[in-house]
Amino acid sequence: MPAGELMWLTEVSGSHRLDGIFVMAGPGVQRGAELDTLSIMDVAPTVLYGLGMPVASDLDGRLVAEAFGPEWRASHPMARIASYEPVRETSAEPEALTEDQLAKLRSLGYLAPDSSAEIDDGSDARAKPPSSDRRRPSAD
């Protein structure tokens, strides 16, 4: 399932329920606040905000701001960050391709069937790009 999509249950099995209980306590929490319908996805952004941490933009759900008193909200503006996920570092040099990977690229038409490419034999070999002297058929 793509990130950001929610899967909605169409059939309830066992003793699972779609409804639940949401309880909060702590500094800034509005005692007796009546909240609209919430999702479990709303818990993380709300807890992060209550702990004074930035809310990640890539989190599903929303900050349940109405759970906090007006004074708290006024003195604690919500901070945002892009994500809590680590940034993956990539190598500047491509990795060598295995024979299976080259075969897949050939079957998809990305490499010519007769293209020669070095494969990963444990050495530091790099795949060679397809020959640049191949010409595409004209659209005449």
Describe it for me?
With 140 residues, the protein is mainly alpha-helical. The protein has 2 domains: 66 residues, no CATH class; 38 residues, no CATH class. 16% of the residues lie in helices and 3% in strands. It has a two-stranded parallel ribbon. β1, α2 and β2 form a beta-alpha-beta unit. The longest helix is centred in the last third of the chain and has 9 residues. The C terminus is likely disordered.
Q: Can I get a quick summary?
A:
The protein has helices at 43-50, 70-75, 99-107, and strands at 55-56, 80-81.
Rounded to an integer in angstroms, the radius of gyration calculated over CA atoms is 27 Å
| Mean residue pLDDT | 77
Main structural class:
mainly alpha
Q: Largest sheet, if any?
A: 2 strands, parallel
Number of helical regions: 3
- Give the amount of beta strand, in percent: under 5%
| Major beta sheet, strand line-up | 1-2
Low-confidence stretches: 130-138
Provide the descriptors you would attach to this structure in a database record:
two-stranded parallel ribbon; mainly alpha; 140 residues
Topology of helices and strands:
Blueprint: H1 43-50, E1 55-56, H2 70-75, E2 80-81, H3 99-107
Parallel strand pairs: 1-2
